[in-house]
TrEMBL record:
Keywords from the named record: Cell inner membrane, Cell membrane, Flavoprotein, FMN, Ion transport, Membrane, NAD, Phosphoprotein, Sodium, Sodium transport, Translocase, Transmembrane, Transmembrane helix, Transport, Ubiquinone
Xref: Pfam families: FMN_bind (PF04205)
Gene: nqrC
Molecular functions (GO terms): FMN binding; oxidoreductase activity, acting on NAD(P)H, quinone or similar compound as acceptor
Organism: Colwellia psychrerythraea (Vibrio psychroerythus)
GO cellular component: plasma membrane
UniProt-recorded name of the protein: Na(+)-translocating NADH-quinone reductase subunit C
Length: 256
């Protein structure tokens, strides 16, 4: 027979001690891992931007080096369409869009974003000769389940699509998540965002785009709602409440 008696107070004390130790361990790991998480997030973002500009294969494992060598991130005021100075490194579109002082409620919220940051980052991507041959625009818009975040790479004419790359979404695998399918992504290069009148015509076409359609890409099968979301997102971000003024300002002279 054991001489030690289990008391209620002892059990509660033991449970509390275990809780405190666990809580300390969790907070310690959260604090310790935060810089690593931030570094991974940045690496992921840089990878997507290189993919959007067609430099991912060339970069191989040297993502950070290639990004630093070829990509310059600049802030743009979306209303004036001009570059502005600011903290581009810590720029956070999601945080800005929650702040009424830094964002607006769009007049025509085609993308279903509720609020739009007054400024955006654009990524200017140089070629080996040092001239900018791609501009990568971040986009966000509603899919079926939630907001979908991605990038559109345009050639130097600021009209011809190089890529449409989604980075963050909650669409269903096999349906809306087919935006990540390489076969679908391969349909985009060469498509034009605007027609000659400057209207945004890029869109997904249910049932398949015709071979000679310079603006249309096949919709995602079984995912009309996500497809419509992608079309509306493109229409919003390349329209007048998105990058249209910036593009109009720089299309003729080119981005330097
Ligand atoms: C579990 C579940 C997940 C779905 N996920 C998506 C999705 O991610 N994107 C989407 O557009 N439709 C999704 N749908 C289908 C939509 O409800 C809708 O039927 C579909 O968008 C219609 O597309 P279709 O006209 O091409 O068939 C999902 C349906 C179910 C039942």
């Amino acid at each position: 027979m054991s001489s030690k008696k289990e008391t209620f107070g002892g059990t509660v004390g033991f449970v509390l001690a275990v809780c405190v130790v666990c809580a300390l361990l969790v907070s310690f790991s959260a604090v310790q891992l935060k810089p690593l998480q931030q570094a991974n997030k940045l690496l992921d973002q840089q990878t997507k931007i290189l993919e959007a500009s067609g430099l991912l294969e060339k970069a191989g494992k040297d993502i950070v080096k290639t990004y630093n060598e070829f990509v310059v991130a600049r802030l743009v005021d979306l209303d004036s369409g001009e570059f502005v100075e600011g903290d581009v490194i810590n720029f956070d579109e999601r945080r800005n869009a929650r702040d009424k002082a830094l964002s607006i409620k769009p007049e025509n919220d085609l993308a279903g974003i509720n609020r739009r940051s007054n400024t955006s980052v654009v990524y200017l991507v140089k070629n080996e000769a040092g001239s900018i041959d791609t501009v990568v625009f971040p986009i966000v818009g509603s899919g079926l389940w939630d907001l979908m975040y991605g990038y559109v790479g345009l050639e130097a004419d600021l009209n011809t699509v190089k890529s449409v790359i989604y980075s963050d979404h909650k669409e269903t695998p096999g349906l809306g998540a087919e935006v990540l399918n390489p076969r679908w992504k391969a349909l985009w290069p060469g498509k034009k965002i605007y027609n000659d009148a400057g209207e945004v015509k890029a869109r997904l076409v249910k049932g398949g785009a015709k071979a000679n359609d310079i603006h249309g890409v096949d919709a995602l099968s079984g995912a009309t709602l996500t497809s419509n979301g992608v079309t509306h997102t493109l229409q919003f971000w390349f329209g007048k409440e998105g990058f249209k003024t910036f593009i109009a300002n720089y299309r003729a002279e080119g981005v330097k």
